[in-house]
Amino acid sequence: MNEEILSHPDLIWALRNYVMDSGRLLVVEVDGQGLIGESNLAFRSHFSSFKRVRGEPLSRFLGGGRGDTLEIESGLVNRTPVAHVFKSLDGGETYLFHAYPVAQGSLLIGELANAAKSDIIERMGNLAIEMSRLVRDLRKTNHELAMANDLNLELARTDPLTGLANRRYFMERLQTTLAHAQARDHRLSLVMIDLDHFKQVNDRFGHAGGDATLVAFAGLLKSQVRAADLSGRFGGEEFVLYMLDADLRAASEAAGRLRVQMSQLRPLDADFRVTASFGVTELSPGETAETLLIRADDLLYRAKAEGRNRVIAEACGA
Hints:
It contains seven helices and twelve strands. By secondary structure, the chain is an alpha+beta fold. Helix 1 (8-18) crosses helix 3 (117-157) and helix 5 crosses helix 6 (248-264). The radius of gyration is 34 Å and the shape is elongated.
């Protein structure tokens, strides 16, 4: 085997899953006592005069030229499987097998060798190289599939416009993080955000302008939140943020910074300012995600009712 050969477990996996289906090669797996386990159709067809293959000793089908003993040595010596020459019991046919080590014994892959032995040996030598290439291709395909799955998973979790968590994924993470915080007595605060007078943005700049404003605010959120926090878009111009290990005061200060920075952004026009309103609350012992969200939403609408572009923060029962 050349240097392209990959790890032995990968090679054996590929051999078992692909060469077993070969219509030309004879494939048979034997245990440490020489008893047959798996065999492919080509092997069973070649010895179709036998009623039973599985569980029978390989020596019932092939001889090693050493009396009744059929010695099987397997391994990857210098990265090359061990070659064996076997004969039919009547001595009329010769077989060349390569023996690969498996957990319970040996995996034998071979051919009728009545043709020029040098040609068969060359073909069998090339098999290992072909299988290594197959394993490499399989790894590449699996890696590409894994990347595609990761991308699909990311798309399923992400709001396509802003790149923030979508509502469904945010709620899943909030439930998990809330349970974690309650079990370990950690603080957790929630911030609900709504962009003020967003209809005016769409009316003046069109939906493209509205989208640009949402993207700009999402970028602001991403740049300001910590690794332990999660921000999401709940829909329309409404956003949400949870902050783990942050009490009401810390979350209020973070919301205040976001409010100021948003009012300073000019995503559309130097003379057009977009502001945001914030409702901030902190998790209480035994509280659910739903009641936490309802309270934050109520505080947000208080902020909008009291003039917008402000933060209202309040704990449960305050």
